[in-house]
Amino acid sequence: MLFNLILFGPPGSGKGTQSQLIIDHYQFTHLSTGDMLRSEIERRTPLGLEAKKFMDRGALVPDEVVIAMISSRLDASTGTKGFIFDGFPRTTAQARALDKLLALKSTAIHLVLLMEVPEEELIKRLLLRGQTSGRSDDASEEIIRTRIAEYYNKTSPVADYYAQQHKLQAIQAVGTVEEVFNRIRQQIDKRFAELTSHPVSP
Ligand code: AP5
């Protein structure tokens, strides 16, 4: 079966960092809308130039843009063990669209991990990363605070959508990267065991 996981959490909570460890361990396919958008910006495509206007000020890119990107990546992916969605969905409209896209592939979301980190720690991490990453949205504390506000206003309500489906699991995402990964691994293994001993449809 495909195992589909969402890494959910505010900017700087470690979604990208943990995605790399999960891929190495489980060989899942990583779908990060932030990485896809930054690649479009680097290639100076019309989509990238439009998205940059939103990203540079810490705002969300319109739903239809990111939904279309995810849709084409899902269509292009074959022979994978599962997907990690990193930074997607970020609105309830995106979550509903994702359910429909996965249903077309006769699959669904199996687990949503909510990465919990105190706000001051998020700001500290992103200001530190901004010194070396060159990411324009890490350039100032003001932009970082806007991104965090976007998360609490528009994205965190999506957690309720998955909580109602009993798919949401909180992860304490502070401590060393390895400690956080061990907590994530326990949750993935537990969910996978539940699904394979009591198969659910889909
Ligand atoms: P995106 O690229 O998704 O960025 P983000 O959600 O803001 O998250 P980050 O990449 O900043 O953080 P992360 O949680 O991945 O943490 P990381 O592992 O890097 O989105 C960027 C923008 O694109 C959005 O603002 C929006 O404009 C647009 N966008 C993207 N998707 C969209 C969508 N679906 N809809 C609309 N717009 C969309 O870690 C952060 C730092 O902390 C690193 O330096 C890392 O080394 C460090 N770190 C990690 N773990 C630890 C630890 N345990 N202890 C100490 N430091 C740690």
Provide a short characterization of the protein structure.
By secondary structure, the chain is an alpha/beta fold. It is built from nine helices and five strands; from the N terminus they run E-H-E-H-H-H-E-H-E-H-H-H-E-H.
Provide structural commentary.
The chain has a single domain, classed as P-loop containing nucleotide triphosphate hydrolases (Rossmann fold, 3-Layer(aba) Sandwich), CATH 3.40.50.300. Helix content is 58%, strand content 13%. It has helices at residues 15-26, 33-42, 46-55, 63-76, 92-104, 119-133, 141-155, 158-164, 177-197; strands at 3-8, 29-32, 82-86, 111-116, 168-172. A 5-stranded parallel sheet has the order 2-3-1-4-5. It is globular, with a radius of gyration of 16 Å. It binds BIS(adenosine)-5'-pentaphosphate.
List strands and helices in order, with pairings.
Elements: E1 3-8, H1 15-26, E2 29-32, H2 33-42, H3 46-55, H4 63-76, E3 82-86, H5 92-104, E4 111-116, H6 119-133, H7 141-155, H8 158-164, E5 168-172, H9 177-197
Parallel strand pairs: 1-3, 1-4, 2-3, 4-5
The protein binds BIS(adenosine)-5'-pentaphosphate.
BIS(adenosine)-5'-pentaphosphate binds at residues 9, 11-17, 33-34, 37, 54-55, 58-61, 66, 87-88, 90, 94, 125-126, 129, 137, 147, 177, 180.
